[in-house]
Amino acid sequence: MPELPEVETTVRGLEPVLKGARIERVTLRRADLRRPFPEGLGQRLTGATVTGLGRRAKYGLIDTDRGDTLVFHLGMSGRWRIDPEELGKHDHFVIETAKHRLALNDARRFGSVDLVPTGGLAEWPAFAALGPEPLGAEFDAAHLAQAFEDRIAPVKALLLDQRVVAGLGNIYVCEALYLARIAPTRAAGTISRKQLTKLVDAVREVLTAAIRAGGSTLRDYARPDGELGYFAKEWRVYGREGEPCACGGLVERRVDSGRSTFWCPRCQK
DNA sequence: CGTGTGCCCTGACAGC
DNA sequence: TGCTGTCAGGGCACAC
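Predict the joint structure of the above. Result:
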């Protein structure tokens, strides 16, 4: 369930297990995910020591002492399993240290793994065009005003555009728009500065709360059969079609090119 | 360029 | 150990 908070949760779960550890063995159990694994990935990682972990947008970062960063994306169904008792058919990429075995499990294989020079991450093609981190100082009303200027596209579509802001996905965009009382179909360029400020606050609030809730799933992540999912009970509109909103309206759902949007037409304008 | 659509892949459900 | 249809957090190629 990987949007920014889930990737952040994943990275925080991996950190105590990987940081400072030497990678003793790497196993590729198939040739690709969304794309082929990088050439020589196993050799290039084996023997390296993990110096730190991080996150950019929805990508997890594992830095090594060889000057390379392992960049992983969880796609739709990816997750790391820590010390699984046995490997399953979707455990495609396995890293072993002296103490632990980590398996990147991804049933739908929309995820990816890359090895990028740490110093060149910012220029790496997938990162070069990314917008600011939504929890960082660069993401503010002025930034959105510039990104939305003269745009007639629905605000939801622009918030999902990683070039505008990096890390939001379908769920948290719905949630943030709800908190900001902005209709997802609203033409982005017509939103007032005051509402943009509210939207920035809403994005931050939703993500922060989700990361906080994700913290409670860290323990689960550390289990071999770790399942996710305490975030769902905090959703205000996502997955709640037909349920009452606090304003007295009913949550509606619409589908655009196969993707669901949930919102309350009564209080989101 | 901006905008909208469809596809990659597998599994979980609901309904029959 | 049914079957079929629908849906799922992302990202990208492509058409207009």
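Residues 64 and 189 of chain A are 43 Å apart (CA to CA).
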